[in-house]
Specification:
CATH class: Alpha Beta
Organism: Vibrio galatheae
CATH topology: Aminopeptidase
Strand order of the largest sheet: 1-2-4-3-5-10-6-9
Protein name: Peptidase
Strand content: 15-25%
Low-confidence stretches: none
Largest sheet: 8 strands, mixed
Number of helices: 10
CATH superfamily: Zn peptidases
Distance between the termini: 50 Å
Shape: globular
Structural class: alpha/beta
Family: Belongs to the peptidase M14 family.
Mean pLDDT: 96
GO molecular function, one term: hydrolase activity, acting on ester bonds
Order of helices and strands: HHHEEEHHEHHEHEHEEEEH
InterPro entries: Peptidase_M14
Amino acid sequence: MRSSYTYPIGTPGQKWGDSERTAWREQTTIKREYQHEVVPKIKALEQRFDVEQYGALSYDPQRFPLFCIKSKSWQPTKPVVLITGGVHGYETSGVHGALQFAAEEMEKYSEHFNLVIAPCVSPWGYETINRWNPLALDPNRSFYANSPAEESANLIKLVASIGRDVLVHIDLHETTDTDESEFRPALAARDGIEYIEGMIPDGFYTVGDSENPQPEFQAAVIESVSKVTHIAPADEKGEIIGSPVVQHGVINYPMVKLGLCGGVTNCTFGTTTEVYPDSPKVTDQECNDAQVAAIVGGLNYVLTQLK
């Protein structure tokens, strides 16, 4: 369905310039604090894991340091697992689900894997509850060489510093009602194109890599999450957010081509989770639990393949 909605910034049909991007940034406000809600949870893990600062955002380096959590005593015989959250800062359970996994499950899986968790890739977006960074750039479309998004560029450097291939990458996201009420209209306005209204699916789903879909791995993630929350059904077209459902609760994107975080490594097993926090059927805690269940389900499956 086409929408007659006009975004309040910019001229319809014209791409934004610097003035429009500045106007957009100036209407954002701080709604929660990274230093109060996220950093203390990271610091609380310092006795159990190696907490490292891998960068900082130049917008305010003191306010926005970037941290990763690594399992202790890395061993070259163990495969590497990367878990990322908060690439889109407004997607809350991606951040707190990653931290919950670290607090509750990471030690157990450290017996089998070298783990790296970057729980909040976009702390400015976390504070302003935004998909974009202050330059009106989407970090999750900016994972490529010489990225203009600091959030993406810093994570790319972190991955390079690992010095080894990553076997598993699980990127934690949400699909929210504001994707349609705010973020997609803003995207259309920024790019000077018409906004065409979409539909938000009610439930959890995953996005695999169309170049390496790993359907059994995706199925294991879906099965694990289904014990915590409901899985999104396909719409009447057999799609979720405009993409064909290739198996229960799963769609695929070309990760590298689109500059997605899911393409930041050459992993064998990768998935992007999509929790739906606006469903009346779930609580915030259940959303965090769903992210943990996705990681656990994926890692348990990989362990069966390593035997």
